[in-house]
Amino acid sequence: MIAKTFLKETKELLREGRVRIAVIIVLMLLGVAVWISTRHYQNVNAQYAMAKTAERVIWDNQGEKNPHSAAHYGTYAFKPKYPLALLDQGVDKFAGTSIFLEAHNRNEAQFSAAADQTALARFGDLTPDFILLFILPLLIILLGYNSFTKEREMGTLTLLQSQGISSWKLLLGKWTAVFLPIFLITTALFLIAGLLLGNLKDFGVFNWSSLVMMYLVYIGYYIIFINIVLLISSKTKKSGISLVISLCVWIIACLAAPKAASNIAENKHPYPSRQEFAANILKDKKQGLDGHNPWSKEAKLLEQKVLQEYGVDSLHQLPFNFDGYRMQKSEEHEAEVYLKHYNYLKDQYTQQAKVYRGLAAISPYLPTRFLSMAIANTDYATHWDFADAAEDYRVATQKFLNDNFAMNSQYGDWAYQADASFWKELPAFEYDPPELKETLKSNGSNLMVMGVWLLGSFGLLLFTTKNI
Amino acid sequence: MLSYNFKYELKQLLRARWIQLLSVVLLVLFGFSAFNGIQKVEKRKLDIAAAQEEVKENDAMMLKLLDSVERGLEVSVPRWTIPSSPMAVGNYHPRVAAMEPQPMAFIATGQADLFTHYVKPTVYGDDFSLNFTEMTSPVQLLFGSFDLAFVVVFLLPLLIIAFSYNVLSSEKESGSLRLLAAQPIGIQNWVLQKLGLRFFWLAVLVIIALTLVFLVLGINPFTQARVYFGLLGLVLTYMLFWFALAFLVNLWVGSSAKNAVALLGLWVVFVLLVPSVLNQFGNTLYPMPSRTLMINEMRSLKAEVTERQDEILDNYLRDHPEFALNDTTQQRGFWHRYMASQKLIKEELSPVVNGYEEQLQRQQDWIGRFKWISPAIIAQESLNQIAGTATKDYEGFRKQVVNFSGTWREHFMPFLYNNQDFSQADYDALPRFTYQKETALQFGGLGILLVVSLVLFATGIFGYKKLSGAGILDQA
User: Fold this and answer.
1) B369 within some domain
2) Cα(A105)–Cα(A74) distance, rounded to whole angstroms?
3) Would you list the DSSP string of A226-251?
């Protein structure tokens, strides 16, 4: 009986013109989106590779220079793109792509793509994630809104009941009929994406397990939507009403809730403005050692401490250049200040994330969005991770340069210049994004929310359709 | 017939509780979104005020220090921050270049969450180091803001669709169409009247709800009468467009469900697809030059310039003989060389910088040429413009700040190259920044929308009979 219902429903869907048209449109859009994303991806990666090597050449060929001048001269860390960004661009467009690494300052990632685009970019891009997250649920609504209502409207429900079909069998048949086309489209997309990613060169490390995980997340998302749409269809009398209600659910889940969440999160846990943030850091920095100011109170204290430690009575007798040593100490103090303030930002974001999770109760879109971005390594957490790695590298670089300065010159010898070959000894900046396992672990709560949605929607659907 | 229709339609709407429901929904949506907008604007105002306050305090301190220095007293601040040095003033006492919100800023967030509203340009560094993006969580930027513009552009059309998708089809489905066919009125006129009345009532509700929300939130719309009526006009015209679509779909499509699907399809196309496709095309046709490669270029140039610093300074002084005349000491230090090189870097990089602005302008023009394809784009752009948060506004702000930062630098050049101290007397002459909104309010988009809607209505009225050869009852 399940198979028969399924066959009948599928035939009906196939024969219906608007379903055919809709499926064709979705497939076309997906094709265009994948093509655009692939091009974009290759472009960005080529630029990344070029910029990275060029920057290293600039750094290596500084010539003879004081190490601290080189520290001010600085270098750049560029953010790479990861394979699954092909499917989900996540927040990449809104996060900066390059960080300037210099002495004394931790800089924000600069040059987000969105800042270089018109306001139209805020409507969204034609990327696979847009279609996966917004358009496919709409297709589900189109496929399923009249699943039950048409039987009511045409009076065939009574006929069905007289056949002695149990309602769960009817439900399962109809459910499978809606699920199958969605399943096929999604599977095809992920297969194509996998093959594309496997064959494209220079695509970074691509592994199938992340792709499969992402695929499962989307399948789960669609199952939730199918459950909701069928539930609405089984509870309403007219197809039109069922469609309008399903649509309201879609709008609330996919458009309204995320926006409202972002407003509530910002109101409750605001970020400081860029200038305010910088001013706070400056204030804290002033409280401590400034490497360029040997006359400050903190510098004098450090001087005394070091003299005592080495049992000498003048800075000239120290086995290293005290200027370099002080620079390093001040660098450490500044790094601490930055750590404190960035941790504050992170705390604010953690609080904001709680708001997003809270509103996931009315929107299965939210956990899906976060999970998908996280698996694709295009989420905010990965961006933080990258920025932190760049900061660690910056701190290490400063130590590398200050140590050279301290060990190879005399106190007061600011004319000291390191060899032209010295710069090559600095290890290059390498960054690896979090592994799938870690990502899933840190997104446990999102996985849980999705699980609750899945079970809850199934339970509700089975429970309420006992007698149609 | 119109008066009958009017009477029965109102009764029907009231009995079906449509009017009541819509009032509540509109009040809640407008209220929540306007409240969100106002909170954002408040934060923006507070941030700017705090920054101004800080500058004021710093200035008082600076004047005190200058006073001490001028009286020959010892001061307890690091040597290079003593404000008698003009470069210290230029670096440690920058002015706030702020973009104050427009009176209607709360109706559309636009680009306001992406860009910062004040910067403090210093003499050190270049225009590249001015970061104009705001510190916002990218997740927030991704999701966007629940502002009034979102309600108008995205949600209002859906309310209209829900309100009008089955005007004709429900008559067919309930069998009352035959009764109607006996009345002395053409079917398209009847649908037009019915939809016209629904438009009328929705318009009344929208106007009342908006005005109420404004008043409750403490904004008097009538102090900004021109802008306010412009806003109302825009919203109503945008609504008219959706009613025009509903009119056509009602006439030509068929059953209620089919109508709803068709209207929703149109909504997806106009509100979601066309904007993203246009944006994609704009980016593909006029791609932004790579920022990462720009960094490389800038770095090489700087490296080269640093090596030639002395030569550059000589050239600079040769171009400015007045400095050689006024200054007898002829002392030249770090800052003399630095400022001269910076000037050169700025000149050499300006084609690169302008490249970005020009490309953005080309993208903007491209969208301008095709925006009539989607009324949602017109509505969103016009709302951003009214709010003063459009791309153009931030572009204008950027340009003004860059200009100001040039003025700020130039202001200290005579001090620097004449080796002249900065004194208390020079304080009042420090340049100040005031933001000037460059784009005048234009309601050109409104005209396009109106024409498009009227054309759609006319198509329905005059084209209906010709296309559907059979009578309306044959289809039923």
Assistant:
1) no
2) 10
3) HHHHHHHHHH-S-HHHHHHHHHHHHI
The domain in which residue B7 lies consists of: 1-285+374-476
Between CA B35 and CA B448, with CA B391 as vertex, the angle to 5 degrees is: 90
Phi, psi of A230 (to 5 degrees): -65, -35
**pLDDT of the residue at A369:** 92
> Across the interface, do A274 and B134 touch by the CB < 8 Å criterion?
yes
Interface test with B, best of A110, A262, A271 (most B CBs within 10 A): A262
Say yes or no for a CB contact (<8 Å) between A123 and B276. Answer: yes
Please report the number of interchain residue pairs, chain A to chain B, with beta-carbon separation below 8 angstroms: 221
pLDDT digits (tens, 9 = 90+) for B181-237: 777 777 778 888 888 888 998 999 999 998 888 888 877 777 778 888 888 999 999
- Partner A contacted by B110 (CB < 8 A): yes
Environment class of B429 (CB within 10 Å of its CB; exposed 0-12, middle 13-18, buried 19+): exposed
Residue A269: strand, helix, or coil: coil
Interchain contact B111–A (C-beta under 8 A): yes
Q: At what angle do helices A322-359 and A274-286 cross, to 10 degrees?
A: 140
Q: How far is A186 from chain B (nearest CA, A)?
A: 20
The whole-angstrom separation of Cα B445 and Cα B375 is: 9
Q: Is A429 helix (H, G, I), strand (E, B) or coil?
A: coil
Contact residues on chain B for A383, CB-CB shorter than 8 A: 138
> Looking at the DSSP assignment, which residues form a beta bridge with residue A77?
A99
pLDDT of amino acid A60: 85
Radius of gyration in angstroms for the set of CA atoms belonging to chain A, rounded to a whole number: 29
Distance, CA of A59 to CA of B399 (rounded, Å):
32
- Residue B476 — pLDDT band, cuts 50, 70, 90? very low
Q: How confident is the model at residue B467 (pLDDT cuts 50, 70, 90)?
A: very low
Q: Provide the token pair at A71.
A: 């520290």
Burial pattern A164-180, b for ≥16 Cβ within 10 A else e, equals ebeeeebbbbbbbbbbe
Q: Is residue B363 part of a domain?
A: no
Does residue B249 lie in a domain region? yes
Maximum CA pair distance of chain A? 105
* pLDDT exceeds 90 at position B300: no
Chain A 275-304, residues with CB within 8 Å of chain B CB atoms: 275-277, 279, 290, 293, 295-296
* Interchain CB contact of B58 with A (< 8 Å): no
Nearest chain B residue to A56 by CA distance is: B296
pLDDT for residue B325 is more than 80: no
| Beta carbons of A32 and A126 less than 8 angstroms apart | yes
C-alpha distance from residue B385 to each of B30, B393, B444 (Å): 19, 8, 12
- d(CA B232, nearest CA chain A) in Å: 22
CB A70 within 8 Å of CB A403: no
Of residues B295, B106, B52, the one with CA closest to residue A47: B295
Domain membership flag for residue B315: no
Q: What is the mean pLDDT of chain B?
A: 82
Strand ranges, E, within B114-172: 118-119
Query: Which two tokens mark A259?
Result: 């926006």
Q: ipTM of this model?
A: 0.87
Which residues of chain A fall below pLDDT 70?
200-205, 467-468
Which among B356, B274, B36, B392 is positioned nearest to A123, based on CA atoms?
A: B274
Q: Which residue among A123, A145, A146 places its CB closest to the CB of B275? A: A123
Q: What gap in Å lies between CA B254 and CA B246, rounded to an integer?
A: 12
Q: Kindly provide the b/e burial profile for residues A403-412, where b requires at least 16 CB atoms within 10 angstroms of the residue's own CB.
A: bbbbebbebe
> Domain count of chain B?
1
Tokens matching residue B397 = 């702000």
Tell me which DSSP letter residue A117 carries. S
- Scanning the structure block, which residue is given the tokens 């300052």? A105
